[in-house]
Automatic annotation (TrEMBL):
It holds the Pfam family RedAm-like_C. This is NAD(P)-dependent oxidoreductase. GO terms for molecular function: oxidoreductase activity. Residues 5-116 form the 6-phosphogluconate dehydrogenase NADP-binding domain. It comes from the Bacteria.
Length: 287
């Protein structure tokens, strides 16, 4: 017997979550600020609540997936959270998650924060690789795991309610650097006789081959030895950077996406670390 679940927020992500729970036959109560987005769910078997407070009252497990942390505070302003298990899938910062956890606990709820590493089309699609980072109350996570695992895989990363957001944002930050590199690469080949569709698989294969770079970085940070296993040293790479910059110039492409990272590599080299890889850049960022 599955206990009822309440979902607040039926945007792109909330809609995908709701459909996944309904498809699994999970009893569901939904609420959305703009009620026209909630009404269609009645025909799909959900109970549609008129207010957020009513929706919260309907279930012991309450999942929120709203635009941002401010909307969570607004939506739950006059809900009675005593005895509830509150799971916040709204993207936010680690500090916002910690503050929201304290806020929820003061109001009598257990709290779990989530960071969704998936897009709406992969929600409810086993094998898609999508998952959610969770942190905060381990007891809540364990008690509610079967319901939480329906829309996507789950990865619990610790009692600190900020850790899900920290993992989420760290991965998104890594992705941002990758997007920058891919943008620069396509700018270089654009309007030459190279078809983007032929170039794309080369980019994907190359980035996939290079991704284990992260294991080398971890090994350096764990051991404190930044020269360990280095096959391409910083002195050589900084030399190579000049070729990247000259090529950008020849192709008429701005190098503005590359130069901030290159400047850090040069600073680390100037500090006398030419035999390392690029791990020392992390020391410059966190100092
Ligand atoms: P949408 O913009 O599609 O939906 C936003 C939702 O928040 C709507 O239900 C909206 O209600 C509601 N909302 C906004 N402000 C308030 C408020 N002040 N009070 C009450 N409700 C409010 O966003 P998504 O569904 O795509 O995203 C939801 C969360 O999921 C975000 O934190 C996002 O970062 C995260 N996420 C989304 C991913 C995606 O690919 N879409 C991927 C990973 C995470 P209304 O309909 O009334 O406007």
């Amino acid at each position: 017997e599955k206990s009822r679940l309440t979902l607040l927020g039926l945007g792109a992500m909330g809609t995908a979550l709701a459909r996944a729970w309904l498809a699994a036959g999970h009893p569901l109560t939904v609420w959305n600020r703009t009620s026209s987005r909630a009404e269609p769910f009645a025909a799909e078997g959900a109970a549609v609540a008129g207010t957020a407070a009513e929706a919260v009252a309907a279930s012991d497990l309450v999942v929120v997936c709203l635009l941002d942390d401010v909307s969570v505070g607004e939506a739950l302003a006059d809900a009675d959270l005593r005895g509830k298990d509150l799971v916040d899938l709204t993207t936010g910062t680690p500090a916002q998650a910690r503050a929201r956890a304290e806020w929820a606990e003061k109001r009598g709820a257990r709290f779990l924060d989530g960071g969704i590493m998936a897009v709406p089309p992969t929600i409810g699609t086993p094998g898609s690789g999508g998952y959610v980072f969770y942190s905060g109350s381990r007891a809540l996570f364990e008690a509610r795991h079967s319901a939480l695992a329906i829309p996507a895989g789950t990865r619990y990363v610790g009692e600190d309610p900020g850790f899900a957001a920290l993992h989420d944002v760290a991965l998104l930050s890594a992705m941002t650097g990758m997007f920058a590199g891919v943008s620069h690469a396509f700018a270089l080949i654009r309007d030459k006789d190279i078809a983007p569709k032929d170039f794309a698989p080369l980019v994907v294969d190359w980035l996939t081959a290079m991704a284990p770079y992260a294991y080398g970085v971890a090994d350096h940070l764990e051991s404190g030895d930044y020269t360990k296993g280095v096959v391409s040293n910083l002195a050589m790479m900084v030399e190579g950077n000049s070729t990247l910059l000259r090529t950008a110039g020849e192709q008429g492409v701005s190098a503005e996406l590359l130069t901030p990272f290159m400047a850090l590599m040069e600073r680390r080299l100037a500090d006398g670390h030419g035999d390392e890889g690029t791990t020392g850049v992390i020391d410059l960022l966190t100092r």
